[in-house]
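Journal club side-thread
Mid-discussion, someone asked how the predicted structure for our own chain would compare to the paper's figures. Pasting it here so we can look after the session.
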Amino acid sequence: MKYPVQRIRNRAIWLKVHLYLALGAGFFFALLGLTGSLSVYREELDALLNPQLVIENPQGAQQSLDKVMASVRQAHPDRYGSWTLEMPRSPQGMITVWYDKPRETFFELYAPLMVSVNPYTAEVVASRFWGQTVTTWVLDLHTQLNLSRFGWNAVGALGVLLMFSVCTGLYLWWPGKDKLLSAFRIRHNAGMIKLVFDLHRLTGLLIAPVLLLLAFTGFQLSYPTVLEKLVGSSGMSHGETGPAIISTATPNNHPTSLEAAEFVARGPFPRAELRRVTTPAGDTGIYRINLRQSSEINQRHPFTTVWVDRWSGQIKEVRNPSKFSNGETFTTWMWPLHTGEAMGATGRFLWFLTGQGLFFLYVSGLMRWLHRHGKIQDREVNLAGLKALLYRLKVEFYRFGSALFRLLVLLIEQLIRYTPGIIDSCVTLARRLYRVGLDRINRQKRIGKND
């Protein structure tokens, strides 16, 4: 009779678990990996597919935000309410003006109107709906499988299954100390299936740390309240716009302009970069200006925010990430870690390769399973003419592994800075749960005595 610990260590059990996860959810893992890797370069692909959105020779000064907004309202006179102007990331980029809930896509989970405006001429170049362009459709496929809220929740569940699949794969890969070197061997003279399987094992080992990180952050982005409750943060997840603040000033004939609101917002953060400006909606609406400080890890969606009253021109509220708690800061890391922008261009490229690697893991694992069931035949691999190329690929493979290791070391160093605060938040949460449970037990005892 096997003891429970021995059963847990049974390799055959974990091999079946790994196999069933691959057969049941492997296709979706591969789909998420492929679409996620493409979405890393969503802006670049969009510019490639739509060259009219790229300003080849930017010249002159940019037009005022008020003039840009006037052009948008002229192009869309029947759309009322709030708009958000997103500043371009480069001199060649367009200003993107977002309208969150257009009537054409009102019942979609997320399908705003995207208006591209030339910042140098204030000309409206294109008006498109999210989900109706190639790159946004691919991103929706990645985030929600194009199945609205159900797909959004399903992707979060797939993140948990992917973490479990990676852990079982690592357990199955471990050959023991005596055979550790043999686990890195690639048998290119033993047939196509063995070559594919060796590449499957080595690829899985190299990308496992990043896959675990992507799966965890992906789950958190689908279920943000889980981490928020754990670390004691609230309203800090991706897409949150901060507290609902309204204007308390009396409406007048001299409302604050966009340019003036931006000027006022820069007061507390004179060196910050302007990223977004959200216009007021109605008489109680207020300007929301998003800036990015150099210390923020978020590139596209920073958390530095200033609310400016449209009637009085006064600052109503300021959100400064440098004053966040450790738990709040940790929560704001989830989006840039998942997209790779936290580690710059190198990190984004490694994230792209990881997504492609996940797709390869599914294909190579499926090939081995089909071969074992007699669905495909093995064949000889002739690599005589490809030795030089394989050697270069091998060198680049190990270079990728070393670069990934350096990035992980950097990431761990950064996380260590916030670990004490996260631990404190977890301890506080555990104490609260303990008190609640103790109170319930005592209440039941009192009820029993009264009976």
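Post-session note: The radius of gyration is 26 Å.
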